[in-house]
Design goal:
Strand order of the largest sheet: 2-3-4-1-5-8-7-6
CATH topology of the largest domain: 2,3-Dihydroxybiphenyl 1,2-Dioxygenase, domain 1
Number of domains: 2
Largest sheet: 8 strands, mixed
Number of helices: 4
Strand content: 35-45%
Mean pLDDT: 93
Order of helices and strands: EHEEEHEHEEEEEEH
Number of strands: 11
Distance between the termini: 32 Å
Low-confidence stretches: none
Length: 191
Amino acid sequence: MISRIDHISIAVKDYTKALHFFQNILGAIPGARAQNKKMKYHWQIFSFGDLSRLELINPLGEDTFLTNFLKKNKHGGLHHISLQTPDIQKTMQKLDDHHIPYFGYNEYGDFWKELFIHPKDAFGVLIQIAEFNPDDWLDKTLVFPKNQKWAVIKNKKGCTLSLAHPGGGKVRLNLTQAEIKELISELEQSV
């Protein structure tokens, strides 16, 4: 039902300060971002070296879904955890079968379908479950072109093998010449 944790979302009052902290100090790489005028908030996805992700959200006005949260948490804080599902309809059915209430079901075209489970029903944590392609939300330098699954780059000690990560983006492995030979041997044995 759940493929993985996609990101944690942090609500902040001062987006500029938060951006500086996560990007310039901790080295997060900015990805997709947008403003939702209807719900009056801004969001931006960031990724770290192993493609761990976080999202910063901040209000664009006084009366938003973030207002009470930020009153209670004057410095901001963890707002929700986002989980990826390969099939939102099957997820909804499983939640229904187990009498787990959810709310806020939205479809934004084919690229994002979501629902939420209230903290009272999820042990104190707001959970967002969404169906989407994770590469769509990353900086394009972090993803392979469509239909490419790997790349090999020679270096002084051997090579760097980059593989498409199922959670989006690339994972890189540095291999020595001995490890390359061992990998080739294992690949040949599997054919």
